[in-house]
Design brief:
Blueprint: E1 2-9, H1 11-15, H2 17-29, E2 33-40, H3 44-51, H4 61-68, E3 73-81, H5 83-91, H6 104-108, E4 117-119, H7 125-135, H8 145-156, H9 164-175, H10 181-194, H11 200-215
Antiparallel strand pairs: 1-3, 1-4, 2-3
Length: 216
């Protein structure tokens, strides 16, 4: 059955250029097409009052909003036969450090909810696609979004990449209180900078947002 779903690379999947490119390449290789593809930066209010509003009473809500609004994301409307469940299977479980290593989150998600990508579930896909088109995405009927996705992969697939396990080991060391949080921030900034072409302020914002999310 042909379906549409909302997928977006979270800030850890955009700042880490190679990781984002691997995510997009996996969607292309699976035979899916794109009704929209683009790097955008929805504002914090949209995430808090619209996309994640159902979690507003959860303890992780504030840190999630801080993280997802810390940098641009790569937003996609992905189309294909059974695409909703297939993309979620490709991503794997929510908690990146618990996800199997043959899933995208297991390979490229940093830790816990800093997990590379969002993908709508069966209940939310139609609503999220409509909401993002109505409120965030500026569709251009003349643009070839499949080409835009391929160009993104071509541009970033050969970017340097740090082994995800290095991040996880560092984060676990801080969780176990074997290093100070401030030292972890310095180390993560240094690693992310090697994988990215974003400016230092954006990278630092992602570090702060990611660790707030992980440590919450």
């Amino acid at each position: 059955m042909m379906e549409k779903t909302l997928v977006f690379a979270k800030p850890d999947g955009t700042v880490r250029r190679y990781a984002g490119a691997r995510l997009v390449k996996s969607l292309i290789d699976a035979g899916f097409s794109f009704d929209f593809f683009g790097q955008i930066k929805p504002d914090r209010k949209f995430f808090a009052e619209r996309h994640y509003v159902q979690y507003s009473d959860k303890p992780f809500f504030r840190s999630t909003i801080q993280f997802v609004s810390s940098a641009p994301i790569v937003a996609m409307i992905v189309c294909g036969d059974g695409v909703i469940s297939k993309v979620r299977t490709m991503l794997g479980p929510t908690m990146a450090d618990k996800a199997p290593l043959d899933t995208l989150r297991g390979m490229y998600g940093l830790y816990a909810g800093v997990n590379l990508s969002h993908a709508s579930d069966q209940e939310s896909a139609e609503k999220e696609v409509k909401m993002w088109i109505d409120e965030v995405i500026a569709l251009d009927t003349d643009k070839d979004y499949n080409k835009a996705a391929r160009d993104y992969v071509a541009k970033y697939i050969d970017f340097p990449m740090i082994d995800t396990m290095r991040y996880r080991e560092l984060i676990k060391t801080a969780i176990d209180k074997k290093i100070r949080l401030e030292d972890l921030k310095i180390d993560m900034f240094s690693l992310l900078k090697k994988e990215s072409d974003f400016d230092d302020d954006t990278i630092q914002s992602v570090v702060e947002g990611a660790l707030a999310n992980i440590m919450s």
